[in-house]
Write a structure and sequence with these properties.
Layout lengths: L9 E5 L2 E5 L4 E5 L16 E3 L2 E10 L6 E7 L12 E2 L2 H24 L3 H4 L4 H6 L7 H33 L7 H5 L4 E4 L2 E4 H25 L16 H20 L12
Parallel strand pairs: 4-7
Antiparallel strand pairs: 1-2, 2-3, 3-6, 4-5, 5-6, 8-9
Helix pairs in contact: 4-6
């Protein structure tokens, strides 16, 4: 059922958009662009609006506060198209467009807030890294950056250890450790009734950084899509992931050979 449209035209509001329609055309001043709408010479994409069928004949920049102007013409009876799909323009479409734009702005804001911490995001474990892909961070890239940062921390630990040893030799007061010892106010961390030596924390950090850099860098060189966080290699991978990886590496033909169907008889068998 087609809706009768006055010949003189009328102006209505659909969300933040302004629509002026008549019997000859529909002019949409959109607050934000309709990304999938493009003018075509052939194979026009049908656009349904108010129970009528149109096609896009013009797309240009609009006067503020609107971003774009779209001119739709009624779909002729003899016009055919091979285009797949169609577009709809209504309050629901406009609301979805605005919600998507707000979501994109939120993603950009989160990305800008996380960007200063880019070298340290790779210390997060792979599950958290994969969730960061929504904000434009590639897990393998941030993992590689964190491996380099871990190496820098390890080098800094060595530098501070040498400085503290030289200081101990000059002053006669033993001060062993790394940058944690250099920044700590005393020789022990007080955690309730416990007293943890700062030197022990420094030594554990050195061992953890050395092992992590070696293990993660070896994995990084071996797998093109690998991503892993700080000390994540300690936790073994699930067997399901190993089977999928093995099946993908040996191929379907070898998989079928390695796992024959039960009950199948060999040639010449009884």
């Amino acid at each position: 059922m087609e809706t009768m449209v006055p010949a003189t035209g009328e102006t209505i509001r659909i969300g933040p958009d302004q629509v002026r329609r008549s019997c000859t055309e529909v002019v949409i001043d959109a607050r934000h662009a309709m990304e999938e709408w493009d003018v075509r010479e052939i194979n026009h994409v049908p656009i349904y609006f108010a129970d009528n069928k149109y096609y896009l004949v013009e797309k240009r920049k609009a006067q503020p506060p609107f971003a774009a102007r779209y001119v739709l013409a009624p779909w002729p009876d003899d016009l055919s198209t091979c285009a797949k799909g169609f577009h709809s323009y209504d309050a629901e479409t406009v609301a979805a467009r605005e919600a998507q734009r707000r979501g994109g702005q939120w993603d950009d804001l989160v990305r800008s807030l996380l960007l200063p911490f880019y070298p340290f995001l790779g210390f997060l474990w792979s599950g958290a890294q994969k969730r960061l892909t929504r904000f434009g961070f590639i897990p393998r890239a941030i993992s590689g950056a964190s491996i380099f940062v871990g190496f820098c921390f390890l080098f800094a630990q060595g530098v501070f250890a040498v400085v503290l040893i030289n200081t101990s030799l000059r002053t006669g007061k033993i001060a062993l450790g790394g940058f944690i010892r250099a920044l700590a106010p005393g020789d022990y961390f007080r955690v309730g009734p416990l007293s943890i030596p700062v030197m022990l924390v420094d030594m554990l950090l050195i061992v953890a950084l050395l092992a992590d850099v070696v293990m993660r860098y070896s994995e990084y060189l071996r797998e093109d899509e690998w991503a892993g966080g700080f000390l994540e290699w300690i936790v073994p991978r699930s067997r399901g992931n190993d089977i999928e990886t093995q099946g993908a590496s040996i191929g379907p033909e070898q998989t079928a050979t390695a796992h024959p169907v039960r009950g199948a008889q060999r040639p010449g068998g009884d």
